[in-house]
Structure formats: C-alpha cells, structure tokens
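call fold(seq) -> tokens
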Amino acid sequence: VASQISECLGAGTGCQWCVPFLKKLHALHLEGKPMDLPTSPEEYAARRARYRKSGEREDAASEAPETTTGASPEPPRNTP
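ret:
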C-alpha cells in the first residue's frame, strides 16, 4: 500500500533514497518471493538520515542487492 511505503520507507520526499529499496521490493514481488529488505528499520533510518545530510550513499551495493528478474534497472521517467 502506497501510504505504508511512504510511512515505512520515507518514500515521496524527493530525495531518491528509497529508490533502490523500492526496486528491490518490486523485483521480489514479481518473483513471488517474500518482501524483505537486507537491513533493519533502525539501520535504514540511520542511513537515510546520513544520506539526506550528505547527498551520498554509503554503499549502494549493500543497500538493496539486485535480483535476477531481468527487470529494467531504471523505470521510465515522465518529463514535462
């Protein structure tokens, strides 16, 4: 549910922090696997706070590992 994603992951603020995590959750859903992220809620919140201050990801590879769905790595963007 979108409201839960926003509440739990901080999605929708425009900082793009959640994008790798949302892609991971979507890929897991498409594969029919349980939706689970490779980090605790506390660690996610701490990393997000650091990212919002610095604008840099600490270790993007460990945040949301890629899956083997063959899904496109970037969703299409709507531009005006």
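Residues 65-80 have pLDDT under 50 and may be disordered.
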